[in-house]
Hints:
By secondary structure, the chain is α/β, with parallel strands linked by helices. The chain is 30% helix and 26% strand. The two termini are 27 Å apart.
Amino acid sequence: xxxxxxxxxxxxxxxxxxxxxxxxxxSYDCFSRGKVIRDGNVxxxxxxxxxxNDLLDEYDTVVNYIILKEQSVEDNIAYIQSLLDFCKKKxxxxxxxxxxxxxxxxxxxxxxxTTSIEKDYHNKGGYASIxxxxxxxxxxxxxxxxSVSFIRPGYIYTKNREISKAGILVSKLxxxxxxGDKKTTLPLICRETLHKAIIKxxxxxxxxxxxxxxxKDKTTGTKYNFVCQQWNIKPVCLPYTPIxxxxxxxxxxxxxxxxxxLKVVGLFKRTWFNSEHTEKVLGINLGKKRIVVIGAGTYGSxxxxxxxxxxxxxxxxxxxxxxxxxxxxxxxxYLSHITNAPYEGLQKARFFGYGGASVKWGGQLLTFTENDxxxxxxxxxxxxxxxxxYKNAVLKRFDLENNIPEQRINDKIFTKTxxxxxxxxxxxxxxxxxxxxxKVHIVSNSRVTKFLSSGNHITGFEYxxxxxxxxAEYDQYFxxxxxxxxxxxxxxxxxxxxxxxxxxxxxxxQRAFKVKSGxxxxxIDFRFHVKGASLITKRFVGEVDGYSxxxxxxxxxxxxxxxxxxxxxxxxxxxxxxxxNIIKNIPQCIAFAWYMIVLKKMYVYNNEFxxxxxxxxxxxxxxxxxxxxxxxxxxxxxxxxxxxxxxxxELFTKARAIIKDYLDKNGVVYEELPFSTSAEKYEDVYxxxxxxxxxxxxxxxxxxxxxxxxxxxxVLPRAGGINSTCAVLPLVEEYINNKMD
Length: 741
């Protein structure tokens, strides 16, 4: 195939086509208005004298996007004459004219590829009148040896682009008025789908005279649905009967001419555009992109919300094993075994149902910066840069901000400030209003068990819905069902790097010091502060031998009121002495409330607190494998082995020494707590990492599957000195905004 010439490559409709041409190995040049010069494969010149532009080569196919906006029909016909002269001189075989469905009669009930277009361009206005006139001119002036194909797309949209309301919606004084009614048709086509169709047309040996490129769905292709999805509003519709009656009356008495009347008819167009033949000859589905999110927990809720904002006109399905009733591992019917150290990250930290573990555990919104890792590999460096890029955008989705800079204390440690989500924010499913989001369809009580794939392309998945085995197919997949369940699915689908196994690690935690001289240590005040209903937190972060650690205050664990109240509520100990202790400590509880509500800072009982040290366990510490024993769904259970290696004890010793040195140099009064390397002294903190993370760089991660993204803390090669959940959210932002079609 010879070169392709794209006329008008800078237009909105053409943007992105060049990338598709390159991906398909198609050679091309571009042409647009300007001085007569060539810059690489971009040629500019006089559009009214294309045939005289010596910088243009010979081309097999020309794709014409150019329309001279704000100019007359006659000016546009002059350009088309120039284009045809060029095609004749260069012996072009195929002209693909980007037309529009607006060329069809406003009164048409059904339009197919064989339907005649409007005869008189005066019956149309503006853009449509030019398209009608140009199409007729091309049909009436054939060039010998060249075929012309009219590509007639629906209303073209793409992600992350502000859409003009012109011709669709009028917004004034707080009122939104639809230019039409609920039945007015507006068939859509995604720009990326349009480009894929054009590529298929270019390479096709036999080209059709007309292609209708649009979603033929009768129920969704309306102006009203488009406005509701695009701007999240329900507009006021124009009254069909009185306006049409008035227009007909004005025509009958001679005030309106026929073209005036037809323009009013266009406001209430009822045409169904049937693109079935185009889909058949191109072998492509022109309907909505079908996107599935698997798991309605922390990440599934975030992903679903973001997709509904970036892709408001696509099909988004959210599958979850549970429903609105939160259940733990045993209640939902999963089965896991701890085969070594007492790692309870599965049995105690996993919850199933809408919101998942976010319903129970308030997360701290912390992300990585250049301070976090001394010698990161390329993938980790990319993660840091993406975290920095999207930190504010992620916080904004929770109506929060954090502009407090990190403070380097010495060459070993620095401070990091984060936001601890409030009770009202922590259930992400509720926070993002997923249940009320009309763009997200929830498929509950459905456990995904296995992916079907061809190479790195996911072709579908198997799932169990209310006891029945089923399969489903989508265009795009997001696996967000938690680190361990996602890994179990990948292993079960033979999509893991090692057969029947997934490595992992986690932070391990120890109480190291009890500080008795107040929450201010040295020049740094570590007191948590209240902002809204959230807590602003501060921690030490450091690194020893390539492993990150952090240390933060644990306050009020010895607060008698809360300790005794917990015994009363959860221990069922109704002793008179216990109740008397609660009453006696009410004044301290009032002080706690005064600090939180009025002073907006954390009350610290007795001005004492614990310093805890959490450190990354070496990645070789843990592995997850499948067990032949079956769970309630007749699926293989999970074996989890997290060993406490001798190296881990050495890392704790070095980290404690760094913190101790800081305390000593700053005159902090403290009690050093006993240290032991026995497993019982380590507490897991349920942020597994180092599972599905062996990537060269971020692009390698994003493209590992060409139509699926795995989203959980396990994709991080390091957990750093933070609660790592939030560090993954910027990766989601980057993928959905910039990597996904």
